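Hi P.,

Sorry for the delay on this. The queue was packed all week, but I finally got your sequence through. Input first:
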Amino acid sequence: MQNAVFVSSDDLRSAFSAAMSAMYRDEVPAYGTLVELVAEVNAEVLGAMPALRRRLEETDSLERISQERHGAIRLGTPAELSMMRRVFAVMGMHPVGYYDLSVAGVPVHATAFRPVGAYPLSRNPFRVFTSLLRIDLIGDSVLRAEAEAILAARKIFTDGAVELIEKAERQGGLLRQDAGRFIAEVLETFRWHDQACVSIGMYERLHRQHRLVADVVSFKGPHINHLTPRTLDIDAVQAGMPGRGIEPKAVVEGPPTRQCPILLRQTSFKALDEPVSFKSDTGAWTAGSHTARFGEIEQRGIALTPKGRALYDRLLETTREVVRPAADGSNAAAYVEALTQTFQRFPDTWDGIRAAGLGYFSYSLTERGREAGGVGEKDVAQLVAEGFVDFDPIVYEDFLPVSAAGIFQSNLGDEATDDFVASPNQRRFEAALGAAVLDEFEHYAAIEQASIEHCRHLLRNLQAAE
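Then the structure:
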């Protein structure tokens, strides 16, 4: 459409994430309480650490702390995943990374839909961790066929949503008069439904296979199962939840408490047991309950290089060989102690992480660098050492499969882990998705290199201006 003024994908994403948050607060009031606690903790941290506040302001990161959210959904079929990719594309969200959760006993694989540029991330960093049920991992062939038939019969997107997705693809965007309707129509896919689309007998059979299988197959849509605010001190939030009437999971997932946060730490409150009605052969409804939805908190640290990630994975595996956290939290203290001891082998200063090549950093000119002339062609290490260039950690925007599985398991119950054979299949997932996923390491490396090249460009211009 020539001369059409479309609503930006960033504005659509911002409006959608706000609408999702409002809906989830209404559906799960404890989530609103959690958001209030996180805001208070963040304010306390910023008040106590003026240097952190100043650096966040200088790097345009302060406003993102309150905006930061991610959600999670679980889909049942390749067709659902493919259409979901198209939904998120309208909002400027792209599939980043492949996650195989079968390695941790959860029968799904996943990607994260999120914005990928510095500017879109600064506008609104909303991301959705999107899992696809590995129906091939259901061992009972009869139950597997029945689950496939149930999923094939459901329709999780409204006609209006499909119409507007196709319109956006055809036009290259949506006009203002369509944007609000697009958000309202798409939001219906994520809404909670308290009437199952299966009988209680079928639900119980699915539940015995795996509680996550029951959650995906038994309902007419992939209700959002959690939203996540970002905190600057996840330990303070974990400690503060019981005082707000919220029961936290026993162990914070991810790395231990550190001076220099790495990757991602996550915790959550226990999933709600919610009333649900099940179909019966007579057309009546049978009362029951279902446990799936919860609230989660995250604290994000630096994105790690392949070398850094290999060290992280090795240290986590070493810890779990000593103590594997129980879903009921009975050995939480022993696990945290082992984790803390093991991770002493990971450098805990930004200089140490950078020198060892373990993390990605964004580089910028210092005041001395902005006033410099005649610096010449030096490598970035020399420029940093001589005070011309400073560096800041690049925030990890993605997820950790073991942590995600840990959150799932703690909210699905002690018996939720099965001994599935680890079977990553990225090619099969991308075929269902209808696109390749972005490699997160290549993405972070490109951001770091672009910042280095920008510094060199500015220094060359300063030298030429002398």
